[in-house]
Write a structure and sequence with these properties.
The structure is a single chain. This protein is 52% helix and 18% strand. The protein has helices at 44-58, 63-83, 166-171, 176-193, 197-203, 205-223, 244-313, 315-331, 351-368, and strands at 84-87, 91-97, 100-106, 109-112, 118-124, 128-132, 144-146, 152-163, 227-238, 338-340, 344-346. The strands form four sheets. Strands 6, 7, 8 and 9 form a four-stranded antiparallel sheet that branches. Strands 3-2-5 form a three-stranded antiparallel sheet. The protein has a two-stranded antiparallel sheet with strand order 1-4.
């Protein structure tokens, strides 16, 4: 070959007879910048190869054993994630072994079960709300009900409930919320169907809600649902949209009737109060008149008794005095004419009349000034 003439070197003039040299004239392990006595740099490929050999020695079975160990670690981690579960504060957990529920109920916190032999179902135990029916402004007919007086009303109400037995809630009914909704709607129709429309509109909403709640609770208890009904709230009750205007007119007429009745009652109470006041006044006046007459009678009687006592002591004097006082009372306001036995009618000077006329003239003179 042509490059064999250059002392066994390569075609680029590489180094003589050194069989360890490469084609560029230097061996693969020579130092880059120094003499032959310098320290050799580490070989990365050698380090990786030695690490692989040590790892294979640690794992039984060599490379196949390493793959099995990694697979086992992955499967173990996945099993732990499935075996450990968390129950939130508003939840309760029911563990099942081969599909059969255990007696224990898991409370809030971390729990462990033997998955996949055991599984867990979580149930929310805080108060929840179920809305039933639709507002009258919508076209839905879900809340239309027939009342006892053959009227149609649109009722929207809600049911507030809690789960008090998670095991019964999960396993006694297939779909507890849907079942409770159907029971609640049926109970509302039953109660509304026994009452007039006026009760559901205004008069007896609270009592209707209580009756519906009792019916729902009794039915759900008979199913063993594990649900406790807290309350029922009637949110809206109105006539269908087609007759809403006519119903409003009827409502206004009823309100006017109530107003007129109230005004009439106020007038009646006013007149009755005045009449009672007048009656009380008349009774008081009659009682006062009675007392006055009785007192006067008692005084007259006492005066008669005193006169009688004086008469028994001096009959002549007392008789004459009584005669004089009586004549004085009789003749006090009468016109007097004096008649003499011998001369007949005697003119007299009417002093009383003269005194009265003088008083009248004096008053007239003062008025003229």
């Amino acid at each position: 070959m042509p490059w064999s003439n250059q002392n066994g070197g390569g075609p680029w003039g590489g180094g003589g007879g050194n069989n360890n040299q490469g084609p560029w004239g230097q061996g693969p392990n020579r130092p880059r910048g120094g003499g032959g006595g310098g320290k050799q740099p580490p070989d990365i490929e050698e380090i990786i190869r030695k690490g692989q050999d040590q790892f294979k020695n640690l794992i039984p079975g060599g490379a196949n054993g390493g793959v099995a160990l990694v697979l086992a670690l992955v499967l173990g981690g996945f099993w732990l994630t499935q075996a450990i579960y968390t129950v939130q504060p508003d939840e309760r957990g029911v563990e099942m072994r081969f599909g059969k529920p255990k007696d224990e109920i898991s409370g809030p916190g971390l729990h462990f079960h033997m998955w996949p032999l055991e599984t867990v179902e979580k149930v929310k135990v805080t108060e929840q709300q179920q809305n039933i029916g639709a507002r009258a402004s919508t076209t839905s007919t879900a809340g239309l009900m027939l009342t006892g007086d053959q009227n149609i009303v649109n009722v929207q109400f809600s049911v507030l409930y809690t789960v008090n037995d998670p095991k019964a809630y999960l396993f006694n009914l297939e779909t507890p919320p849907q079942t409770m909704q159907q029971v609640a709607e049926s109970a509302m129709r039953e109660v509304v169907g026994r009452r007039p429309a006026q009760d559901i509109f205004r008069d007896a909403r609270q009592q209707i809600a209580v009756d519906v709640r009792n019916i729902i609770q009794g039915t759900m208890d008979s199913y063993g649902s594990g649900i406790s009904i807290n309350s029922v709230a009637i949110e809206d009750a109105a006539p269908p949209r087609e007759v809403a205007d006519a119903f409003d007119e009827v409502q206004r007429a009823e309100q006017d009737e109530d107003r007129f009745v109230e005004e009439a009652n106020q007038y009646a109470n006013q007149r009755l109060g005045a009449a009672r006041g007048q009656a009380a006044q008349i009774r008081e006046e009659a009682a006062a008149y009675k007392d006055r007459v009785v007192k006067e009678a008692e005084g007259e009687a006492q005066r008669f008794v005193s006169i009688y006592d004086q008469y028994t002591k001096a009959p002549d004097v007392t008789r004459k005095r009584i005669y004089i006082e009586t004549m004085e009372q009789v003749l006090k306001k009468s016109n007097k004419v004096i008649v003499d036995d011998q001369q007949g009618v005697v003119p007299y000077l009417p002093l009383n009349e003269i005194g009265r006329m003088g008083n009248q003239q004096g008053q007239a003179g003062q008025g003229g000034k």
